[in-house]
Amino acid sequence: MRRDLEEPGRPRPDLVVGREELLSGAREQLSRGGSVLVHGPAGIGKSTLLRTLAAEYAGAARTVLRCSATESESHLPFLALADLLGLVAGEVADRLPAPQRDALESALTGRGESTLQRDGLALRLAVLSTLRALAAEGPVLIVADDLQWLDSASAELLGFAARRLGGLPVRMLCAVRTETETGGQEQDRHLRALPPDTRTVRVNPLTRTQVAELLGHRGYTGLPRSTVRDIHRTSGGNPLFALELGRVLAESPVPPRPGEPLPVPTSLRALVLNRLDMLSAETRRTLLVASAGARPTLALLHAAGRENAEAETGQAVALGLLAPEREGPGVRFAHPLVSAALYAEAGAAERRAAHAALSTAASDPIERARHLALATTGTDPAVAERLGEAAAAARDRGAPSVAAELGLLAARHTPADAVPGPDVRRLQAAEDALTAGENDLARDIARDVLDRATEPADRVRAWMVVIEAAGQSIAEVDAVFPQALADAGDDPELLALVHYQLAWRALVVEGDFAECREEAARAARLAERAGIRRTQLMALSFQAQTETLMGHPDAPATIKRALKEPHDPQVACHHNGAGSARFRWLIMSDRLAEARTTITALLREVRRRGMVESEVHFLRGLAETELRAGHCGRALDLARESLRLARDSGIGEGASAMQASLAEASGGDVDRAMALAREAVEHAEGDGDLMYLSLALGALGYARLVAGDAAGAVRSLRRVRELEESLGVTDPARGRWQGDLAEALVRVREHAEAQEVVDVARERALRLGRESMLGVLDRAEALVRAARGEVDAAARQLASAQDRLAGLGHGLEEARAAYALAGLRAYRPGPGPYEEATRLFRRCRALPWLRQAERAALAPAPRPQQAVAAPAVPAALAVLAATERQVAELVMEGATNREIAGRLFISVKTVEATLTRVYRKLGIRSRVDIVRLAAGHRTS
Question: Coiled coil: which residue ranges (predicted)?
Answer without folding.
Answer: 777-804
